[in-house]
Amino acid sequence: MSFATLVRHVAGLHDRLVNATDRVLVYGATGHTGRFVVDELLRRDLVPVLAGRSAERLAAVPPRHAALDRVVVGLKDPGRLRGAVAGAAAVINCAGPFLDTALPLARAAVEAGAHYLDVTAEQPVVQAVYRDLDGLARTAGVAVVPAMAFYGGLADLLVTAALEGGSQADEVEVAVGLDRWWPTAGTRATGARNTSTRLVIRDGELAALEDPAPAGTWHYPPPLGNQPVVQLPFSEVVTIARHLEVGELRSHLNTAPLDDLHDATTPAPTATDEDGRSAQRFVVDVVVRRGADARRRCATGRDIYAVTAPIVVEGAARLLDGRHRGAGAAAPGEAFDAADVLTALETAGAITVR
Ligand SMILES: NC(=O)c1ccc[n+]([C@@H]2O[C@H](COP(=O)([O-])OP(=O)(O)OC[C@H]3O[C@@H](n4cnc5c(N)ncnc54)[C@H](OP(=O)(O)O)[C@@H]3O)[C@@H](O)[C@H]2O)c1
């Protein structure tokens, strides 16, 4: 065992003794994504505590979650929220729009001495969490990792892994490709709530996306192939800017799933396998250029909501066992060993990485 690995193990042991629990509070456990997250925690022998604002909705969780501890708590009373978090080693926030939920819950987690993760795709949320909670989290000795999810985290991990330990790139392109999109109510509410100007990285700085957003064609790997795309950046821009020095960053999404999203009659996702996943297929394709060197990493898989669960629970597991950078607010690829996380996700069958 290397010295660095030994230090990580000792830090992990220390964290476990301090927290003395594998309890993970899942806020928004009543939602579509929250349910996948609860199942994934159970699969990994962690102890989910179901939390949400509505007693009625929490009482209606699936029978397989009925025996789990539950806590009904809104976000308006910081004292009650802190009390609800007490005893949990980590909080996973699945309740969106995160513009309404992330800051009060993340603050309560930090003040109660628990790690915090969420699955936000909203850029201003990640900016606010980094701005307001980094110092408090360092003082409290806990980690705060927003955007540990399909949108945001997965691209951040792929770009970090492509750099193989480097921290600088002249140009990064992120292209998400979906064969279709069955949006949840939470996705629709979040899109309506988040009216902020989207950010890209231009000349090394966060800058407003051009209006209208530039369009083009992206050459996805099979089965998507060539697709019309439009620039549509999510939280990966803010997470990447947090820990990597990037000259230009552009994020694209193919237009076919956007048509589904913009059609009010498109239904919510339905389960088509025993794990509850829909038939939706995704690709996250990143290209990182440094001088003449260009590297590409590509993750493929099924159901953007379902895959968010192994991503965020992998993060939670690493926060609990000490395999993370330490206290403070951090991007996924900054908090964790990105290549190792991607390997773990691939080994678990959540994604395929090329
Ligand atoms: N970054 C990504 O790749 C990614 C992946 C999956 C999901 N997400 C995001 O995660 C969020 C949830 O998505 P979903 O698919 O799970 O949606 P959903 O099925 O509609 O569930 C929404 C959840 O959020 C809770 N909630 C909403 N507003 C709240 C508030 N103000 N206070 C307390 N709880 C609140 C709901 O509680 P009630 O049951 O009490 O209404 C419910 O548990 C959305 O913002 C979505 O965009 C992001």
How is this structure best described in words?
The protein is α/β, with parallel strands linked by helices and 354 residues long. The longest helix has 18 residues, at 123-140. The strands form three sheets. It has a seven-stranded parallel beta sheet, sandwiched between helices. The model is unreliable at 1-20 (pLDDT under 50). The chain is built from 13 helices and 16 strands. It folds into two domains: 3-149 and 308-342, NAD(P)-binding Rossmann-like Domain (Rossmann fold); 150-306, Dihydrodipicolinate Reductase, domain 2. The structure holds NADP nicotinamide-adenine-dinucleotide phosphate (NAP). Residues 28, 30-34, 52-54, 57, 75, 94-98, 100-101, 119, 121, 149-152, 184-187, 190, 304-305, 308 line the site of NADP nicotinamide-adenine-dinucleotide phosphate (NAP).
What's the CATH C level of the largest domain? Answer: Alpha Beta
Taken as a percent bin, the fraction of beta residues is: 25-35%
With helices defined by DSSP (H or I, 4 residues minimum), what is the helix count?
A: 13
What is the H level of CATH, i.e. the homologous superfamily of the largest domain? NAD(P)-binding Rossmann-like Domain
| Shape descriptor | globular
Determine the N-to-C terminus distance: 29 Å
SSE class? alpha/beta
Tell me the number of structural domains: 2
Radius of gyration: 19 Å
